[in-house]
Write a structure and sequence with these properties.
Chain lengths: 371, 175
């Protein structure tokens, strides 16, 4: 079997390791002989197929839940209309102005710091760090982010990785506001990509392209180097690898758990009272997502910095990842599903089907031998 | 969610109910319609095999390749009719007919030895040798009073599966 200890990979974990092995077998009567009807009766497999068509846990992870309609009431409706006017007519322009001011301050000071303080690396780094935190605070202010942080604020020290559940790119902004994390992220197109490659690079962020296998190696190498460095910004990884709707958590990639560092879990839970913070990247661009947030009353969320975890003796990275996922899911009230988020982009491996075939084949053979 | 209006009129629903022999209730059909729109990502009014494959739990099913041929390009009415065999209101006859159709892919009303072998191959993959598969199948066929070259019709399926306490039900979530 694969020994993944030496080579760190951001590659997908084996789904098989996560799934319970209760696939369909023949009816549980080991003493009975095999009859024709046992072979012809394919109803368990068909039922499972139809069940998946009608409802499946994977699709549910990425479903944006529409808000409950509460305003269709003769008394509430005028109030709601008034709210719309305020949100779009007053709040939104103010927020745009705030954000613009933020950008002007940020860009002017960032570039002066970046070019004028060439000699003093340490000072420059610290200033750049606080400037990134500043612009993130402006972003949070632009959606009137009501964020409650629980637990100690992360500190800079080597050999530790922060992992958090992922709902939208705004998770990153919310966390960045408190601490300038270096984050591992998918490379985005458009203006977000431009920001990534110019400014965020200075806080040590690492980008990759999900579909490029070569990128994985480079990222893995950079990861190791980053974790070892004493003065680097704390590393933040979203091990789900994709945005989930904040009701479920999909499997964690094992990359973050193979570094041999302490893993500090962060749980983020959004309150959907005003707006759904889930970014469905298939349906909206990030700009549209931001506009949606900026025209809502507020973004309310809780952030918990949880107890740091270490690999226990005898524990595999996958088990470790599952343990941490469990801690985060419990805190944020998420349901755990045994699916790899990358299945949004690719098909499940045939291994998974083979396991089902194997258990069926074994039960056929077992009963045949009893003759 | 999405591009299609999720409101069906009572007439629409009754028409669909007619089409699936009233195996689903009004709410169930409304709920299935939401699911249909969710699966029909490009909003074309039908679900392609590719869109069915995007459900991993379906894609890993050993019979998915075979079921694709039955489900590819279904519109909503056909989608409901396809699923109606899994309703708790469907008769045993309907359920057995569905299973028969899975075996009888060419639709000639007869299931030959090879059809059964194909399904068994889908179910067991590489974990039983081809030779052993044929052996097993021949054995159970003969034990049940058939020969290797006999064709099984729907009536035979009814006889074989009819009294085995067939459990083939899927609940449609209704909110």
């Amino acid at each position: 079997m694969k020994s993944s200890s030496s080579e760190l990979e951001l590659d997908r974990p084996n789904i098989e390791d996560y799934l319970p092995s209760d696939s369909f077998t023949l009816p549980p009567s080991p003493t009975r002989l095999l009859h024709l009807r046992d072979l012809l009766d394919i109803s368990p497999t068909l039922t499972e197929a139809a069940g998946a068509i009608i409802d499946d846990s994977f699709t549910r992870c990425f479903k944006s839940n529409p808000p409950e309609p509460w305003n269709w009431n003769i008394y509430l409706f005028p109030m709601w209309c008034l709210g719309v006017v305020i949100r779009y007519g007053i709040l939104f322009p103010i927020r745009v102005i705030v954000l613009t001011i933020g950008w002007i301050i940020f860009l002017s000071s960032y570039f002066s710091v970046h070019f004028l303080l060439k000699g003093q690396e340490k000072l420059r780094k610290n200033l750049e760090r606080s400037l990134v935190e500043l612009i993130c605070s402006f972003f949070v202010a632009s959606w009137t982010g009501v964020v409650k942080y629980h637990g100690p604020r992360p500190s800079i020290r080597p050999k530790q990785v922060f992992v958090a559940n992922h709902t939208s790119m705004i998770d990153f902004i919310i966390l960045e506001q408190m601490t300038a994390f270096a984050v591992i992220m998918q490379k985005h197109p458009g203006w977000v990509g431009l920001l990534q490659s110019t400014i965020l690079e200075s806080v040590g962020c690492i980008w990759f392209n999900r579909t490029e296998a070569k990128d994985r190696e480079i990222v893995a190498r950079k990861l190791r180097e980053h974790v070892e460095g004493a003065d680097n910004n704390p590393l933040l990884i979203f091990p789900e690898g994709t945005c989930v709707n904040n009701h479920y958590s999909v499997m964690f990639k094992k990359g973050a758990f193979e570094l041999g560092s302490t893993v500090c879990p962060i749980a983020i839970k959004y309150n959907k009272i005003f707006v759904d913070a889930f970014w469905n990247s298939r349906k909206q661009s990030f700009t549209k997502h931001l506009l949606q947030l900026m025209t809502s009353w507020a973004v309310v969320c809780d952030v918990w910095y949880l107890e740091p975890q270490n690999l226990k003796p005898g524990e595999t990275p996958i088990e470790f990842a599952e343990r941490v996922r469990n801690i985060i899911s419990t805190r944020a009230g998420l349901k755990m599903v045994p699916w790899d988020g990358y299945l949004k982009y690719s098909r499940p491996s045939p291994k998974h089907r083979e396991q089902k075939q194997k258990s069926f084949a074994e039960s056929v053979l077992r009963r045949l031998e009893q003759k | 969610m999405g591009n299609t209006s999720s409101m069906l009129t009572q007439y629409d629903i009754e028409e669909v109910q007619e089409h699936c022999n009233h195996t689903f209730s009004l709410q169930e059909i409304a709920s299935l319609y939401q699911r249909f729109c969710q699966l029909d990502r490009n909003g074309g009014g039908f679900i392609s095999a590719e869109e069915f494959l995007s459900v991993p739990e379906f894609a890993v099913n050993p019979l998915s390749q075979r079921l694709f041929r039955m489900v590819d390009g279904l519109n909503f009415k056909e989608f409901v009719a396809f699923l109606s065999a899994f309703s708790s209101r469907a008769t045993l006859q309907q359920k057995v007919e569905f299973i028969f159709k899975v075996y009888d892919l060419d639709g000639n009303g007869k299931v030959a030895f090879n059809d059964m072998l194909d399904v068994l191959r889908d179910l067991t993959g590489q974990f039983i040798s081809e030779q052993q598969r044929e052996q097993v199948l021949t054995h159970v066929l003969e034990e049940a009073g058939y020969k290797k070259d006999s064709f099984l019709g729907l009536a035979d399926f009814m006889k074989i599966l009819g009294n085995s306490g067939l459990k083939m039900e899927v609940e449609v979530p209704v909110d």
